[in-house]
Request: fold
Amino acid sequence: MDFLALPKIDLHCHLDGSVRPDTIIDLAKQYNIELPEDRDAVVQSLTVPEDCKNLDEYLACFSLPLQVMQTEEAIERISFELYEDAALENVKYLEVRFAPILHVNKGLSLDTIIASAVKGMKRAEEKYDIKGNYIMSVLRMFPKDSIKDVIDAGKPYLGKGVVAFDIAGGEKPGFCAEFPEYTQYAIEQGYRVTVHAGEQWHGQNVYDAVTMLDAERIGHGVHIQGNEDAYNIVKEKQVALETCPTSNVQTKCIHQFSDHPIAEFKKDGIVVTINTDNRTVSNTTMTNEVKRVCETFGLTKEDYAEIYKYSVESAFASDEVKQHLMGFVEQI
Ligand SMILES: O=c1[nH]cnc2c1ncn2[C@@H]1O[C@H](CO)[C@@H](O)[C@H]1O
Ligand SMILES: [Zn+2]
Reply:
C-alpha cells in the first residue's frame, strides 16, 4: 500500500500538540518569548522523550506552544498550517481540538480565540482538498467555572466550523461524576460529545463516559480491555474509539506498539479509528500511524477501507461532507 497516497481521516488531533517547530521559533522571536538554545533543543522540548513515564509527563510538552498561541495571528496561522500539513499527506477530513481557555493569557476573548482557529481552517479548506471541524476541549483538572463560558463562546460557530465538546487532560478514576452537568449543557446547545477516557488505565471511565456523559465517541478507550462492562457497552452501542497508537505507547498506556489492541478490537466488531493525537508532541503523521498499524498487524487494503469507513461514519461532519468522504473509498 502507498500509505502517503491513501485517503485518510484524523478525528483526534490537538492543535497545541501539532504546531510546526519552525513556527514556534518564528513566533517566539516575534513575541520575545525565551527559547531553548538552538533548534534541536526546541524540537526536543516539544517532543515527548523516549523515556516518558506517563501521560502527565507527556502533557508537559505543551507548555512552549501554548506560550506562543496567545494572539489571533498565531492561532490563525497554526490552524492553517496544521490543515495544510494534513492535506499534503492526503488527509481528507480533520477534526482538530484545543482548549480555548488555555489561550486567554494575553487578554484574547474566547470568541476571538475560536474565530481565529476557524478562520485558519477555512483558509486551508479553500486552498486544499481537505475539510475540517473544530472540537472545543476543556481540561479535567481546571476550575469548572469557565466550562459553560467555553460552550457558550463556541455556540455561534456550531455548524460553521465547530461541532463538538471534549474533556481532556490527565485521567483520574471516576472523573465523569463531575461532568454530567456540562456535557448535558453542551448537548442542549447542539454540540456532539467525545471524551478522553480509558487512556491511562481506568476502563471504567469509558463506561461512565458513555452512560453518564452521553459520549458518542471515546478518545483512546484502549483500556476497555479488561473491563467487561466498558467493553460490552462500546461494542453494543457501536461507540467509536479514537485510537492514537503511537501516543499510547509514548504515554506508557500500552507497553509496546505490537500490544496495541486496535486490530483485536476491530476483529471483534468494535468501531476503531486511527488518529494522530499530537503531530509534533508525538512526532507523527497520519501516514505514519496508518502504516504502523497496517504493517504491525498485517492489515489488508480491505481492512483499512473498513477503518476509513468507520471514520467517515463517526465523523461529526454534515451528511454532505460524509458523502464526499465516502467517495474516496474507491482510491483505497
Ligand atoms: O492524549 C491526551 N490525553 C489527554 N489530554 C491531552 C492529550 N493530548 C493533549 N491533551 C491536552 O489537551 C489540551 C488541549 O489540546 C492540551 O493542552 C493537553 O493538555
Ligand atoms: Zn488527545
